[in-house]
Amino acid sequence: MIAVLLICFVAVLGAIALWLQHRIKFKSLRGIPTVEPCYPLVGNVPIVVGKSEEQLFSIVAHQVLKYDRLFKVWVGPKLMLATSHPDLIYQVVNHPQCLERPFLYGFSGFTKGIFSTDWKLWKLQRKALNPAFNALVLNNFVPIFEECSRRMVQNMLSHADGSTGVNILKFTSICTLEMICATSLGSDVMQRPGKEEFVHSIETAFNCASRRMFKPWLYTDITYRVTKDYNDQQKAWGVICDFFSKIIEEKKQLIRVEDHNHNVQALADNKNDTEDRKPKIFIDRLLAETRGGVPFSDQEIFDNTYHIITLGNDTSALEVMHASLFLAMYPEIQRKVYDEFIQVFPSEDSEITAESLNQLEYLDMFLKECLRHCPTAANIARTTITDIELDGMTVPAGTDIILSFYGLHHRKDVWGPDVDKFDPENFKQERVMGRHPHAFLPFSHGTRNCLGARYATLSIKVMLIYILRKYHLSTTLRHEDLRYKFDMTLKLAFDSLIQLERRDRQEALCIL
Fold first, then answer.
1. What is the pLDDT of residue 509?
2. Which residues face 290 on adjacent strands?
3. What is the pLDDT of residues 412-462, one digit of tens each?
């Protein structure tokens, strides 16, 4: 009891010191409006205490759309700025002094990876890893995307009676996990024991991290360690670490064998041992390349593996689920998407390539509208490295700035009075030309944008082609029924149930 009281006393003193420090440091920002009600020391925290994840999302979405430009949020004694304005978001994500990620990103764990590491290490890592996602490498992944998508729709078959509601995310999550492990690690994850527990552990770790963001009294590890979330997160990380450690060690051994065999063959053929090498996938670059002339440390290898697998799996799976739901809710749009790809790929034997996918113009508009309504990362944040000029004022170094892509994509002054309507025609060229140039930023922007944006687009298109080729989608849900919850990525607050009906059966009934 004495120890607990001492911890509380120290925490209160720390909060007072931080609150006073921020009051002095950020006095230049006094003209910026503040979210109300706001109280000394606790700031805006009472607004969110005791709220569900669904309520938290609604509160955040309401606030970012309430203010036109910059506004202040007090997370306990800590001040943050926030905005959904296209000009300000664009300035921040492209500013060379806004490359740092806030401490909040560290709540996800594995802080030496490209997602949450400090900006200096990130720069070196990003430069070394960019080639793993170039066009040549990604184009070679399309057959893998097809193979995984083929298994996915086959697994859906037993649920395709046209009346049973199916949570399609359960299938898309497994499919994208297969894809990302095969293309980034060269490993068939579905043949490994513990894959279901691994997927569940990823979700648990993310949920714990997102809940911690709204509880400033848990920002310090000493207080967080006494919570149930801490124990749950530690268990989840243990499962994740065990799963990845085995894959990474096997890959290290395989690379040693392959390099040895390649060198022996090169000597026998009297060829340079750097000739005829295939482009390196993500794990190959982590294990063989350097960043700034220094090899990746074991911790960097592990953390980057965690980030690329967990984020690559979660984001693409969610976007396919969202897209499938919108297709089910809007049958006329589903028909247009289906008719277009049937023209480009008239049979199941038609070859799918990155080039042929570019011919699907309506599908491209449809996916952009999905990302407008459901940006995978609803909110991101940056920290200023030095003092910067923003919106006519000086923002001090060390300021955390929250950028809301969900808010940006739902602003009536940018998208018009029908902003809530789902309409792929929003991305017709003539409409795009008449809109704010920074109105749509689904994968962020600038040098610290999403590394896997093109990868995600290709894999999502292939998955949707296979789903629609096999099934007609329907749902009783309406667009206005959709509700989201606050998390690291944009998730529905409930299971989205879709009815699947085999197209061959549906077409046969139409003929009869």
1. 46
2. 295
3. 999 999 999 999 999 999 999 999 999 999 999 998 998 889 999 999 999
pLDDT at 199: 78
Q: Please give the full DSSP string across 178-217, using - where no structure is assigned.
A: HHHHHHHT---GGGSTTHHHHHHHHHHHHHHHHHHTT-GG
The two tokens of residue 450 are 């999403």
pLDDT (average), residues 64-90: 94
Q: Strand pairing of 484-485 and 491-492? A: antiparallel
Write phi, then psi, for 40 (nearest 5 degrees).
-55, 140
How is 361-380 classified by DSSP, letter by letter?
A: HHHHHHHHHHHHHS-SSSEE
Question: CB–CB of 425/417 below 8 Å?
Answer: no
Cβ-proximal residues to 17 (8 Å cutoff; 6+ apart), any chain: none
pLDDT in tens, 123-169: 999 988 999 899 889 999 999 999 999 999 999 999 999 999 999 99
Give, for 384, the enclosing helix (H) or strand (E): none
**End-to-end CA gap in the chain:** 77
CB 346 within 8 A of CB 469: no
Unique residue bearing structure tokens 């290290």: 252
What secondary structure letter does DSSP report for 479? G
Q: What does each C-alpha distance from 511 to 118, 422, 504, 505, 508 come to in angstroms? A: 61, 32, 11, 10, 5
Helix 298-329 vs helix 331-344: angle between axes, to the nearest 10 degrees? 110
pLDDT value at position 511? Answer: 41
Q: Are 70 and 391 in contact (CB under 8 A)?
A: yes
- With H, G, I as helix, E, B as strand and everything else as coil, classify residue 140: coil
Question: What is the model's pTM?
Answer: 0.90
Per-residue tokens: 376 = 């995978």
The predicted pLDDT at position 245 comes to 83
Q: What is the mean pLDDT of residues 467-472?
A: 96
Helix-helix angle 361-373:453-470, to 10 degrees: 110
- Lookup: tokens for 101: 């990620």
Q: Name the nearest CA neighbour of 138 among 467, 478, 460, 510.
A: 460
Q: Which helix (H) or strand (E) holds 491?
A: strand 491-492
Phi, psi of 375 (to 5 degrees): -60, 130
Q: Is the pLDDT of residue 233 over 50?
A: yes
Type and span of the H or E element at 243:
helix 228-268
* Average of per-residue pLDDT across 246-265: 74
Res 105 pLDDT > 60:
yes
Cα 97 from Cα 170, distance rounded (Å): 40
The secondary structure of 10-76 as a DSSP string is HHHHHHHHHHHHHHHHTGGGTTS-B-SS-BTTTBTHHHHTT--HHHHHHHHHHHHHH-SS-EEEEET
- DSSP state, residue 387: -
- CB atoms inside a 10 Å sphere around CB 208: 23
Residue 369 corresponds to which tokens in the numbers above? 């509208």
pLDDT, residue 512, reads: 42
